């Protein structure tokens, strides 16, 4: 399994707009081979931002890599720069190979 995460530092007051943007968009993920599940996570609030993370689970790294090169990826990110959410910096990507899973 492979976990792909993007961390977003959202300016205070923009949380509702950020959540609306993510929860109403068409991700195109369900049609992508190797996709397992997606979570939008809301983290702690700091003085200058609220931390969010998009957390996607994939069958393997190759499936995630194929997604980033697909038409579905381009469609899902087509309007990424057209939002009114205020960020501090760019999203920070983190990718992880799963070493252990306990259920």
From TrEMBL:
Signal peptide: none
Keywords: Oxidoreductase
Assigned EC number: 1.14.14.18
Protein name in UniProt: Heme oxygenase (Staphylobilin-producing)
Source taxon at top rank: Bacteria
Oxidoreductase keyword on record: yes
Keyword tRNA-binding (UniProt): no
Gene behind this protein: isdG
Highest classification ranks of the organism: Bacteria, Pseudomonadati, Pseudomonadota, Betaproteobacteria, Burkholderiales
Domain ABM: 2-99
Gene Ontology molecular function terms on file: heme oxygenase (decyclizing) activity
Cross-referenced InterPro entries: ABM_dom, Dimeric_a/b-barrel, Heme-degrading_MO
Enzyme class: oxidoreductase
Annotated PROSITE patterns: ABM
